[in-house]
Amino acid sequence: MRVLALVLLLSALSADLWADVRVPALFGDRMVLQRDMPIHVWGWADPGETVSVAFRGETAATTASPDGRWEVYLEPTEAGGPYDLGIEGENSIRLSDILVGDVWVGSGQSNMEWPLERANDAAREIAAAQYPGIRYFKVLRVAADTRKDDVEGEWQTVTPETAGEFSGLAYFFARHLHGELGVPFGIIQSAWGGTPAQAWTSSRALSADPTLAEFVANFEAEGERLKPGYEAAFADWERRAAEAEAAGDEAPRRPPRPRTLNPTATPSWLFNAMIAPLTPYPIRGVIWYQGENDANNRQALLYRRLFRALIEDWRHEWGHGAFPFLFVQLPNFARVAENSEWPELREAQSMALGLAGTGMAVTIDIGDSTDIHPGNKQDAGLRLALAARAIAYGEQGVEFSGPMYRQTTPQGSTLRLWFDHAGSGLQARGAPLVGFELAGSDGKFVEADARIAGNSVILTSPAVQAPVQARYAWGDDPEGNLFNGAGLPASPFRTMN
Question: Which of 337, 366, 401 is the last residue of a domain?
Answer without folding.
Answer: 401
